[in-house]
Amino acid sequence: MTDAQPSLSNDIRKREISYLIKMGIRIVCLILAVAVPSPWPVKALFVAGAVLLPYVAVLGANQRGHTPPPRMDLTSPNQTEIPRHRREIGS
Known about the structure:
Layout: H1 8-35, H2 40-62
């Protein structure tokens, strides 16, 4: 396993697929809210899904895949900087 982030095209493809799945579920909720004769609490659940899923889908589609790796702490003793007493060339 590597710490490298996925390529931009792979990340966009995953977000597009996720968005399309959520929108498909929304369409199903909308159809069920209109077509299925059921009590009002069930219809309210379907309507809530049809109303809230676009918001959730857009948030997920706009979110980048992974968080960037943490910045290196340059104040730690493990740093790779050349020590001050060795910076001069020819001394």
